[in-house]
Amino acid sequence: MDALHTEVKELIINSLNLEDITADDIVASEPLFGEGLGLDSIDALELGLAIKKQYNIIIDSDDPKIREHFESVANLAAYIASHQAE
Amino acid sequence: MNAYRPVILIPCYDHGETIPALLDALESVGLPVLIIDDGSGPETARLLSEERHRDGIEILTLPKNNGKGAAVMAGFRRAAERGFSHGIQVDADGQHDLEALPELLRLSQKYPTDLISGKPRYDESIPKARHYGRYITHIWVWIETLSLHITDSMCGFRAYPLPETLATIERKAPGQRMDFDTEIMVHIYWAGCGVRFLDVGVIYPENGISHFDVRRDNVRISLMHTRLFFGMLPRIPKLLIRNFQRNIHWSAYTEKGSVLGMKTLLAAYSIFGIRVFEALMSLVMVYYHATRKQARSASNEYLNQLKTYAAAHQKPLPQNLTPFRHFLSFGRSMLDKIAGWRGDWTMENVTLHGLDTYAPYLEKKQGVVVLGAHLGNLELFRALSIQCPELKINALIFTENAARFNAVMRAVNPASGLNLIQVKDMRPEVAMNLKEKLDQGEMVVIMGDRTSVSKEKRVVYADFLGRPAPFPQGAFILASVLNVPTFLCFGLRGGTKYKPHFELYVEPFRESMTLDRSRRMEALAEIVQAYAERLNYYALKAPLQWYNFFNFWELDDGDKNE
Predict the structure, then answer these.
(1) Is 1.10.1200.10 the CATH classification of the domain at A2-85?
(2) Is pTM, for the whole model, over 0.90?
(3) DSSP A49-63
(4) What average pLDDT does the segment B334-352 reach?
(5) B6-12 and B33-38 as β-strands: parallel, antiparallel, unpaired?
(6) Does domain B6-230 have CATH number 3.30.160.250?
(7) Which of A47, A58, A63 sits opposite B436 (nearest CB)?
(8) Contact at CB, B429 and A49, closer than 8 angstroms
(9) ipTM, 2 decimals?
């Protein structure tokens, strides 16, 4: 799981061009949006697209937990892992 | 006010077999019952006389068979003589599920001057032909009442307020037979009484007797609708006023407010064609124009801005740019959508401009985003596009109001529901979904011009007709993160009133749009301004085809729609 956390962090940094940040600066359990890393809704879109591209995952619009999946690196990684297991 | 005194009315013609069971079932309700024997044969007459001993039963025997309507009306008169206030009609064949009876009585007591009617919830025993027959009658009744209020006009499970009903019958005798149920309901509605509905289970009993004679009664029913149609014409103003008093807000405007009118107009168009549609639509627009103050002032605002801009830049404009003609143009665009989905307009009615700029992308299956606007009629082109199987157009819809409009369109052509992507918000999963479509070489259409309905707070200002107007950020951000080539597309109506010709303009917009983190807002503002300039250009080409009926230059605070 740690490897996947790092992978997701790298994905965030690369896809969003977060130049001054390294994977170590991101705490897996902290919120990505608003406080925490301070990403905005445009970043959310970009991140969604990056995840789709890298993992070939599409989140179902009817999924009530979408917001949760994007809350933190840990949640994202868990979601990706659950999808890869399928 | 007089006390509530209901009596159950059962018109009966040769339904003797089912009567005892029906009366048994009604016993628990404990209401007096009036059976009207509509000249039944000896067998039923005998069966009925065996029921005379029951408490509270009266059997009114008519000397000869005159039809269900005549029987029910005889029942009304007899019931009124005996001092009852309400007649509760139940069919003799036992097709109505009496579990709904207490609710029928409750509603009728609560709304003592309204007609309360069952609305059948059919099980699968309904014969298909009757099902379609009912649908045609629905459409007729919508036209006759200029309203969708009456959702069933044929169910014989009803509570009639006797004084109001008898007054209506005195003025105008309704049909005596199978045409009765519908005709009396329309007349009662016309008289200004309320009509309310409740669900009732209905079964067509296997050994039930139906007196419906297909040929004779269909002729009768057609005659009735003809009578009602002509009866409706002088009542148009009154009926329209009633509709709009009840529940129309042209709020969240164009789409929501128009649906009710649209269904009626759709029916008018399907049955009578384009000329009658135009006539009715003009009447509706006369009414809208007279009463929709906000929409009218938005139209004025827009037209004045347009004229000021055109004068300042020496741009030619057509004569007679008035809000009324603006409304008419909107009404016509609704027809065009319907006609497009019906297949009445085809690619022969269209001239394409600039399609060659898109052709290479189509060829190499490169998905593109198209930024559209509520200028002209892109929906029509979506309808026409189904004739080109290689072209797949997805449309992103941001509002809930559009859902109602789309429901109407689906009634015209179920295919209209395909590839509509309904979203409330600009969210990651939306982008992921759209990207998937684009990856398959499809087209995604996003409207770039509406702020009011979606209550979009995040806007970018750009000059439109010489004055800064708020444009939704969401549409442009989405288009940019999807990171595919973007096009602009405007479909404008030309030709004549009855024989339109459409011009579809396609033009490349950006090969890619990137919003760098460091200067996002500036980049966004540049893109939106470029879009607004093209919108400006096409608005001057077709000034009356601007279908944003809210003040485009001001942000709606979200409360004005109430």
Answers:
(1) yes
(2) no
(3) HHHHHHH-----TT-
(4) 85
(5) parallel
(6) no
(7) A58
(8) no
(9) 0.85
